[in-house]
Amino acid sequence: MGNGGYKQAAGGHTPPVGQRLIAEFREPPAQFAGCFTTFYHLTLDLPEIGAVVTDYLQPEWANIRFFCGTAPEAAIAANKVSGVPFVGTGPSTLPCRFTLGPVRMWGVGFLPLGWSRFFDADASDCANVICDGTAHPAFAHFGAMTDVLCDPEATLDEQFQALVTAMERAMRPNREEARIARVHAALVNGDHASVHDLAEACAMSIRTLERVCTRYFGFAPKLLMRRQRFMRSLATFMLHRGRPWTEAMDAHYHDQAQFTREFHEFMTMNPSEYAALDHPILTSFMEARARARGSAAQTLDPPAPR
Asked: What's the predicted TM-score (pTM) here?
């Protein structure tokens, strides 16, 4: 069911001596097709008492994460969270800077279809939000899972089954699922030059496209198209550390100056500044994810076949 035990680092990246990162990905049951990027369990062991690592998550879809051990300090722009076991994040167009010690963590990523089935709030109301999940109205209904997912005595199989059971109880259908799937597929698979082209590919008006994107994807269509292009480039770079940015750039960037501007908008730093940073978590995790799931980042996951 899972593909785990990955402890590799990408070329040019050396994790701290004694650090061990294990990522195990569990396939959600068939009734959840198209709802989740993945269910995954992460184990981080560090060599010294009190040791921590710092890294940056790239823009992604919404997530819930449950921490057993060290709770993170994390921030997306001015939104910050510290010391809580259940962290909720909305869809993002900005990086999440986090500091983490030794931990066992369960994570669940929600695709737009999953947002429609599991959340009552508009995704745009949670855009670039990171929060104590128990205290935020959009995420609080998942809080009951904290006890079992943060129980050090429970096995991974027991925790996974509890996660599946809770999601089965929480899921309800949405009448716009077909539209959500069309937009998602067009964003991931298409290279559209304009919002008009994207709307045409989705067989809907621009106004309907904008409403669906705001409600379930979190952002306006143009911004989603730009984020998709950027994430293709960033994922290529992260999987081929040492490759020049010019080789990782998506072909639809006009030139390196445009890419640099986009990079700074989405990651709040220049490409050279990002490349100079250590990525003790993200590099190894993205490699593991690419091997287990076929894509290195949430935003590159396609919708379920219909």
From this structure: 0.89
Give pLDDT, residue 49.
86
The closest alpha carbon to 42, from 221, 208, 288, 302, belongs to 288
Strands 79-82 and 73-76, sheet pairing: antiparallel
- The predicted-structure confidence for 15-74, as pLDDT tens digits, reads as follows 555 688 898 999 999 999 999 988 999 999 998 888 999 999 999 999 999 999 999 999
Question: Would you state the structure tokens that stand for residue 126, as one six-digit string?
Answer: 């949670």
Flag whether pLDDT at 94 surpasses 70. yes
Instruction: Walk across the sheet containing 73-76 and list its strands.
Output: 53-57, 96-100, 73-76, 79-82
Number of domains composing the chain: 1
Q: Which amino acid is at 167?
A: M
Residue 5 pLDDT level (bands cut at 50, 70, 90): very low
Residue numbers of the domain that contains 183? 1-306
Residues 221-242: tens digit of each pLDDT? 999 999 998 998 888 887 776 6
Measured between alpha carbons, how far is 138 from 159 in angstroms, rounded to an integer? Answer: 23
**One-character DSSP codes across the chain:** -EEEEE----TT--PPTT-EEEEEEEPPPGGGTTTEEEEEEEEEE-SSTT--EEEEEPS-SEEEEEEEESPPEEEETTEEEES-SEEEE---SS-EEEEE-SEEEEEEEE-HHHHHHH--S-GGGGTT-EEEGGGSTTTGGGGGGHHHHT-TTS-HHHHHHHHHHHHHHH----TTHHHHHHHHHHHHH---SSHHHHHHHTTS-HHHHHHHIIIIISS-HHHHHHHHHHHHHHHHHHHTTTS-HHHHS-TT-SSHHHHHHHHHHHHSS-HHHHHHS--TTHHHHHHHHHHHHS-SSGGGPPPPP-
pLDDT tens-place string over residues 199-225: 999 999 999 999 999 999 999 999 999
Q: For residue 13, what pLDDT is reported? A: 42
